[in-house]
Predict the structure.
Amino acid sequence: MLRSVPELWRSRELIRTLAEREIRARYKQAFLGASWAVITPVVLMVVFTVFLKRVAKIDTMGVPYPLFSYLGLLPWTFFSTSVNSGGQSLVSNSSLLNKVYCPREVFPVATVFVAGFDALISTGILGLLFAIYTFPPKITSLWVPVLFIIQIGFTVGVTLAISAVVVYLRDLRQALSILLQLGLFATPVAYGIDDIVPVGFQQIYSAINPLAAVIDGYRRTVVLGLAPRWELVWPAAITTVIVLIVGYSLFKRLETGFADVA
Amino acid sequence: MSQPQGTIAVEHLWKRFKADRGKAQIRDKMARFRARTKGEGGARGYRWALTDVDLDVEPGHSVGLFGANGSGKSTLLKVLCGVMYPYAGRVEVSGRIGALIEVSSGMHPELTGRENTYLFGSLLGLPRGVVARRFDEIVAFAEVENAIDRQLKFYSSGMKMRLGFSVAAFLEPEVMLVDEVLAVGDASFQQKCIDRMRGVLNEGTTLVFVSHDLAAIEATCARGVWLHNGVVQMDAPVADALSAYRRSIEARAEAAQVGGGPLRLTKVEVSGLAGQPARTQESLEIIFRLESDVSDYALLHAGVSEGTASPILLITQTLTLKPGELEVRARIESLPLPRGRFYLWLGAARKGKGQDLISWQPVCQFDVEGLLLDQAPSAIVRLSPVHVRTEWEVSSF
């Protein structure tokens, strides 16, 4: 498995071409110059603010709710877009896979890059929200890169694993959308982690769903001026490392049969 | 121990596919699991696509791969490419591989021709600069200058093949793999491709060429590998391998009875003068004995071919059929065939009504002794061997 990493690095040109092609195609057909992938978190934020906040008692710790939920929507959208598109990246590129040799990882990895690009643009909207609510980011935002690494690691691991499995179990794609919908509510995106998980179980929960720790961390560091809750972050980090290793190994193992079933 | 670039080494390669290859849904897996636990295990059959295949090609050599449909040629090519993995055995190909397997090989339909060329270049591991340098050459060879910036999904299959071949051939691969795609192009482009393949061979690229066009294989490759049902039947100089293959096709055809209807062939004999073997530019005698149940006028066609259904020469005669036996003799003066093995084909039809009395089929084979044809330069592929007596006169002014 370790041998394939340098090969993947050598194929970075290919990843760039694939990602570029996808981004260009999406933004070419864009409405108002913004891709739907970027509008989605905004729309969800509005929906949550208008409907969910009224129904549920959500403790945002003094942060305006739209900002609070958007900070959760950004990483979640990155994750769910990567898994959704990455999941089918191998199947939709089966014509290429079947005829030319290239490191197979480039396809799911390229979709993660595309999701990252969308996230970058969405972060611009975050800046807008800071201005509207006159709630500037705090200096503790310097912790963000640490959380970001966990976010990316977990996303890449899951995307690689799912993309490989989908080649063999095509209907998993449908199940995937439903699972991601569930995930949106199982993860503290529209609310805080304290609202859904009792304190005693929060560590276990972070180990199962690293994104929960990441989102909670973003909220604390960016707008509350607090350090992330390290007791939640380290289980998340461990899970992420495991997921990355297992996901990649699974990918490499299943890779040998792709062309046979595609 | 690394091999020089352009080497292909295949040792004891086995490759199998699950019989139910297409069933990739959860319910199929569940059904299979249930069958296994119930003890009906093994219902999952496997089909062996390649059985103990060995192939060693040195850099700069050319191999033509041929055989019936389903013999495993494309599978072997895909394993060489690295797209499919062996079940058992070792496959090692050193160097950059340029492959054209199926018409839109490696091309993405949403991208334009230009973008696909650069994409293919990166797939081959070439930096953008190198691709840019050869770009114009590639487009000119493929004759797609007008469409190069159009998306590939709008290309005709001929255009796709031309671009695909052009990209694979011009991006300087050390190993070139071409699958039976040339048939999609027109005759002049096919010739261009064959010339280009020869050019690429001259530059030291290793070539593996799969085709049903046996003449194209003979024109391009020095070595022929005949694959049948995943087993290598023969690996020899191309002419020998090809004639063995052609003979097997004919053997299968000959096994069928000649004319089971109202007109039957009971005996056929081919010989030269006075019972001697046939010789070039001498008389050929053919004797048919026919048994007829009907009274009619019939057209009898006899042809000579090298094994294919298209004869090199064809002779026709009208016969008046009556119930009973009939002997027909034909003498061809000055047989224009060079030394070699040939097949006599026969067909008969009711005159005017075109109904087959005997369907067109090979009835016997014969050898011609005598002169060999002059060696043709490698750029010229002869359609059929015909020997003509020529007189040359050269004068200077």
Notes: The two ends of chain B are 63 Å apart (CA to CA). Residues 238-254 of chain B form the longest helix (17 residues). The domain at 8-17+46-251 of chain B is CATH 3.40.50.300 (Rossmann fold).
